[in-house]
Design a protein that fits this description.
The protein is elongated, with a radius of gyration of 25 Å. It has helices at 2-12, 16-20, 86-98, 103-112, and strands spanning 24-32, 37-42, 45-50, 53-58, 64-69, 76-80, 83-84, 116-117, 121-125, 132-136, 145-149. 26% of the residues lie in helices and 38% in strands. Strands 3-2-5-6 form a 4-stranded antiparallel beta sheet, with no helix packed on it. A 3-stranded mixed beta sheet has the order 4-1-9, with no helix packed on it. It has a two-stranded antiparallel sheet with strand order 7-8. By secondary structure, the protein is α+β, with helices and mostly antiparallel strands.
Length: 150
């Protein structure tokens, strides 16, 4: 009876990461400077935002490429990766504790993407667009010209 209760409890808790963690994470995305336009793209996911913004990101879309632009700053690209959730270890403990009976929980959690999560805050610093210097010289040895672009 004692073993039956333990197995029943483990089966009831199967998929606990799905119930607690869910298939997506809420992430705060910020840039320096604020007000940058960013495009987020991942596996089956795409969104356009203006920073700072709070975005619901599906775990199954990882890794997500974040491309941000702002006037006077270089276009900056960064990657937002999802890391393992602590619930993955919980499912593993249930599987060991029940002798494999709770493997259903791990299968369910993996299917909905609940075994991973994103960090809560994602910050990007954009580099200032530096003026580029261009020097033109004549082949015949005539005067050279220095140009700079904004």
């Amino acid at each position: 009876m004692k073993h039956f209760c333990a197995v029943s409890a483990a089966l009831l808790a199967a998929g606990c990461a799905s119930m607690v963690n869910g298939p997506s994470s809420e992430v705060n995305i910020a840039t320096q400077p604020a007000g940058a336009r960013c495009h987020l793209s991942g596996d089956g996911f795409s969104a356009d935002i203006v920073t700072p913004a709070q975005v619901q990101l599906p775990h199954k879309a990882a890794p997500i490429t974040v491309t941000c632009e702002a006037p006077g700053f270089r276009r900056t690209v960064n990657t937002l990766n999802a890391g393992g959730s602590g619930w993955l270890w919980g499912n593993t403990a249930f599987i060991v504790f029940t002798g494999g009976a709770a493997v259903l929980g791990l299968v369910v959690d993996e299917a909905v993407g609940a075994t991973t999560s994103y960090r809560k805050d994602f910050n990007m610093e954009l580099d200032v667009e530096a003026a580029r210097r261009l020097r033109a010289t004549q082949r015949n040895g005539g005067p050279s010209f220095d140009l700079s672009s904004p």
